[in-house]
Design brief:
The protein has 427 residues and is α+β, with helices and mostly antiparallel strands. 30% of the residues lie in helices and 29% in strands. It has 4 domains: 3-91, Rossmann fold (3-Layer(aba) Sandwich); 125-182, Dna Ligase, domain 1; 193-314, D-amino Acid Aminotransferase, Chain A, domain 1, CATH 3.30.470; 329-426, Alpha-Beta Complex (Glycinamide Ribonucleotide Synthetase, Chain A, domain 4), CATH 3.90.600.10. Bound molecules: adenosine monophosphate (AMP) and glycine.
Length: 427
């Protein structure tokens, strides 16, 4: 089988590494890929926004099966386009991807199907949104969310009414997120611990893959601005078998059934951002793909070949009730460039990668890297993800950090507390 992986981050590097380990992959092409991926698969330059180009590449390369990493091509309809062309692709249609690409859609959908989530109002005009904020219906803090895709920056947890009004003006009057902020969702602030819950869906059925916890802020102890994610660990000790079954029953199964009933069956990875409140698990957000860096810690937990699972899900033939999971604990530390997340330096030489990768149970995945004059250099905010595996959290975390410390580049920054919160509950 000739397989195409779309994307260029560490998540896609982890996917490619995992698929390469599966014997069923005849030939693997990644587009556009990155220098790390290029060591495992043939990489082809590609603008993922250009669906004609994506389709032409699949045609030229005689691709049998396509796996999509990021949300943008899904929300633009790459799955619809491939379906029209009779090509097999794992990922939701644009209509199904609205679970991520429109927060107003996701919230209204949850309300229609009684899926537990924060109470909310969807507002399509500045006046509406200001009226909701000023009305104080949800108290403070209150959460303001740009409706559309805003690269993880469209959510403000406003501590008081003035901050909430500012967030509404930023999105709707000053169009800080462009069209993504033309509508906003104002919602109640939930209290609890956050967990990411990953499932595989085939349109009518879903199976849980695993859970993880992200570290979104740039600095230790969850301080500083939000990023795409500075590290993660998996599985989350907060979710036992009973809670997993409850999330499937109260959230995932109704979502899959609801999407199918509305004529937009959901096929793909479903990533449910959960808040574990005193009132039970509630949905913070959906993503229609794997997370980054969550994929790097979740994929190693899948203890069976990945490709047949993805093909089964893409063809509506997921027959398993569960996925077999290994006993390992996995931790990932993201190495970022100076200035991230506001800006990012590029072109700094990266050294020590070989030494890091030589450590047993360690993998290093590329994101913002490039080859310049035969040397590996930085080329973006998040540069590398260093993953450690072990039989307990301390072992996995220690491996990730020992490896991370072998690597250096000018301006390298990373969090020093990845996985620390796992001990708070796991002992
Ligand atoms: P999102 O981009 O939807 O993942 O939101 C970013 C972050 O905002 C989440 O990871 C939460 O920490 C926080 N957040 C979003 N919605 C809520 C909510 N209703 N209550 C509390 N925190 C929230
Ligand atoms: N790490 C968060 C995300 O991928 O959305």
């Amino acid at each position: 089988m000739r397989v195409l992986v779309l994307g260029s981050g560490a998540r896609e590097h982890a996917l490619v590494a995992r698929l390469t380990a599966d014997r069923d992959v005849g030939d693997l092409v990644a587009a556009p890929g990155n220098p790390g991926i290029a060591r495992l698969a043939r990489t082809v330059p590609l603008n993922l926004d250009d669906l004609d180009a994506v389709n032409a590449l699949a045609d030229r390369e005689q691709i049998d099966f396509t796996v999509v990493g990021p949300e943008m091509p899904l929300s633009r309809g790459v799955a619809d386009r491939f379906q029209q062309e009779g090509r097999l692709l794992f990922g939701p249609t644009a209509a199904a991807a609205r679970l991520e690409s429109s927060k107003a859609f996701a919230k209204a959908f949850m309300a229609r199907h009684f899926v537990p989530t924060a109470r909310f109002r969807a507002c399509e005009s500045l006046d509406d949104a200001l009226a909701v904020v000023r009305g104080g219906e949800f108290g403070v803090p209150v959460v303001i969310k740009a409706d559309g895709l805003a690269a993880g920056k469209g959510v403000v947890v406003a501590p008081d009414r003035a901050a909430a009004e500012r967030a509404v003006f930023d999105a709707m009057r000053d169009r800080k997120f462009g069209a993504a902020g033309d509508a906003v969702v104002v919602e109640e602030c939930l209290e609890g611990l956050e967990v990411s819950f990953f499932c595989l869906c085939d349109g009518t059925r879903a199976v849980a893959i695993a859970t993880a916890q992200d570290h979104k802020r740039i600095f230790d102890d969850d301080r500083g601005p939000n990023t795409g994610g500075m590290g993660a660990f998996a599985p989350s000790p907060l979710v036992d078998a009973a809670l997993e079954a409850r999330v499937m029953r109260e959230i995932v199964d109704p979502v899959v059934a609801g999407m199918a009933a509305e004529g937009h069956p959901f096929r793909g990875f479903l990533y449910v951002g959960l808040m574990l409140t005193s009132d039970g698990p509630k949905v913070i957000e959906f993503n229609v793909r794997l997370g980054d860096p969550e994929a790097q810690v979740v994929l190693p937990l899948i203890d069976q070949p990945l490709l047949p699972l993805l093909v089964a899900a893409a063809t509506g033939r997921l027959s398993q009730r569960s996925i077999s999971r290994g006993p390992e604990r996995v931790a990932a530390v993201v190495l970022a460039s100076r200035g991230y997340p506001e800006s990012a330096e590029s072109g700094r030489e990266i050294v020590g990668l070989d030494a890091a990768e030589a450590i047993p149970q360690v993998s290093v995945y590329h994101a913002g890297t490039a080859i310049k004059g035969g040397r590996l250099v930085t080329a973006g905010g998040r540069v590398l993800t260093v993953v450690g595996r072990g039989l307990d959290y301390p072992e996995a975390i220690a491996r990730a950090y020992v490896a991370a410390l072998k690597i250096s580049f000018d301006g390298m920054q990373f969090r020093h507390d990845i996985g620390r919160k796992a001990f708070a509950y796991a002992g």
